[in-house]
Amino acid sequence: MKHLETLRASLKEKNQALDTLQNKDSLTDSDIQEMETLLGDIETLGKQISTMEKAQKVSAANAKPADGSVKQNSVPAAPEAEPENFKSFGEQLRAIAQAGMNKDSVAERDPRLVWQKSAGANEAVPSEGGFLVQTDFATEIIKHAHDEGEVSRRARRIPISENANGIKIPAVDEDSRVDGSRWGGVRTYWANEGETVGDSKPKFREIELRLNKLMGVAYATDELLADTVAMEALFRQAFAEEISFSTEDAFVNGDGSGKPLGFINSGALITVTAESGQGSATLVRQNIYNMWNRMPMRSRRNAVWLINDELEPQLYDLRTAGDIGLLYHAPGQNAATPANDAYGRLFTRPVIPIEQAAAAGSVGDMMLVDMSQYLYTDKGGADWNQSMHVRFLYDEQTFKITYRVDGQPAWKKPLTPANGSNTKSPFVALGAR
After folding, report:
1. CA angle at residue 110 from 106 to 111, to 5 degrees?
2. Which long-range contacts (CB under 8 A, 24 or more apart) does 157-164 make?
3. Checking phi first, is residue 281 left (phi over 0); if not, alpha (psi -120 to 50) or beta?
4. Do the Cβ atoms of 185 and 201 come closer than 8 Å?
5. How does strand 374-378 pair with strand 204-210?
6. Contact criterion met (CB below 8 Å) for 200 and 372
7. From CA 357, how far away is CA 306, in angstroms rounded?
8. Interatomic CA distance for residues 347 and 350, integer angstroms
9. Alpha-carbon span 383 to 20, nearest angstrom
10. Hey, what's the torsion of the CAs at 251, 255, 259, 264, to 10 degrees?
11. Is the pTM of this model over 0.70?
């Protein structure tokens, strides 16, 4: 016990010396060298204190009788009350930052952080560990990200168990609708009485989603940390928007290496060739007709057009007198596109400009997709870590968010129709021009 008290006193002394140096108007080379020494001593003392505290717990547990009985005249300890949750996300972020400064022992930190346990290997040393953000706060950030995203909110989310880092999904291996290929090999026959028919069976494949790590970093000054309301608003919006952008960019353009496989780079994509003589980065009516023709009938009710907004002015020229919902209608132009609708429409389906679309004239500047045929899984929340060391000389705290997600199209390749040569797919893009 005395040794542990000595270590805690030494840790407090080192932190006080570090505070004194931080409050100096200017730092000399020797001051900086002394600060580096103090930081090393603080981390070492933190590890020693953590080890001693764990050893005390083990010793206390071993001191109990093997049969679990209570010694005579001993008074059972009252069960530790579960701390209340944080009232706001900003309040918890400030508690994380204060704990990361490592000015107090583990036992003296905010009990709500201790209760939620460290996300890292060592809860005594901020550079080696962190704290999990309260579940409802973390989940709300991800929910906000996907609610705001035009692509991800239309994709199909596959739940994953708490302790899993991936999921395998059985799927029908069907890439043709000709006889003998439907459902990968099921076939029916018209037979007369007494005749036999050939056997058939469906064919299956496996879709594997394995969580990839998406990380974001932000810095907070001491002034911002003092204002929990401003910090909460800033961090919620900043990380939600960044997670939304990066996730959606991966769903559209990801190469599948350490990130989701985007439909643009998948084997399921159909690229519709531009018309002969078509000008660079232009749109003509036949482009729209050809793209719509390649969308499977069962996907048309869910399909949306995703475009680079530089193409939007050209869409107005595609509408002529007599068109009834077939070509472009801006909001308010037609009963199918009321004035309060945010989208124009092509073939009655929404036209949505997105930042992740390719540059005008490139493959991916205009896409027709059914995102219900894109599968993704995630942990449904986010992990946060904090460090005072990364931006130490700038008097800033560093916060890191980690979001784990994976996704890919449910289709591995376009589908050959029962009759005809034009393949179909829920992912269609206009070719380069």
Report:
1. 85
2. 157/376, 157/377, 157/378, 158/209, 158/375, 158/376, 158/377, 159/377, 160/209, 160/211, 160/377, 160/378, 160/379
3. left
4. yes
5. unpaired
6. no
7. 7
8. 9
9. 33
10. 10
11. no
On whether the CB atoms of residues 397 and 187 are closer than 8 A, the answer is: no
Query: Terminus-to-terminus CA distance in the chain, angstroms?
Result: 77
Per-residue pLDDT in tens (0 to 9) along the chain, 433 residues? 567 778 777 877 877 776 676 666 666 767 777 777 877 777 777 777 777 776 776 666 565 555 545 444 544 444 445 556 776 666 766 676 666 555 444 445 666 664 333 333 333 343 334 455 555 555 666 666 667 788 998 999 888 877 777 888 877 777 777 777 776 677 777 777 767 767 767 777 888 899 998 887 777 776 776 666 666 677 777 778 888 899 999 999 999 999 999 999 999 999 999 999 999 999 998 999 999 999 999 999 999 999 999 999 898 877 654 554 457 777 666 555 555 667 888 888 999 999 999 999 999 999 999 999 999 998 766 666 666 665 666 667 777 778 889 999 999 999 988 888 899 999 999 999 9
Instruction: Give me the amino acid identity at 368.
Output: L
